[in-house]
Write a structure and sequence with these properties.
The longest helix has 12 residues, at about 50-60. By secondary structure, this protein is α/β, with parallel strands linked by helices. Helix 1 packs across helix 2. About 35% of the residues lie in helices and about 15% in strands. It has a 3-stranded parallel β-sheet with strand order 1-2-3, covered by helices on one side. It has one domain: Rossmann fold.
């Protein structure tokens, strides 16, 4: 049985190989779920203007080996030029 957060992320159309930009890191939980859905061929960029949430999310995602997610500290209105096609 999926949690409500897992159902919400899955219902947003996240599929393997997708590149996703998520604005606002929060606890990092939804970014981790999204990373699992897009898999190793996808990319999740979880942007936040605050330093602490992005550093914390990087730690909790990379300790268990989620490599398809990055959590840069940046102003989302400026985009993330190093990850744009």
């Amino acid at each position: 049985m999926r949690s409500p957060a897992q159902a919400t992320v899955a219902d947003n159309g996240c599929t393997r190989g997708l590149r996703v930009a998520e604005y606002g890191t929060g606890s990092g939980y939804s970014g981790g779920l999204t990373s699992q859905l897009v898999g190793p061929d996808g990319e999740v960029s979880n942007l936040d203007i605050e330093y602490y949430p992005t550093r914390w999310a990087d730690v909790i995602h990379h300790e268990p080996g989620l490599e398809s997610i990055r959590c840069p500290t940046t102003d989302g209105t400026e985009g993330l030029h190093e990850r744009t096609p």
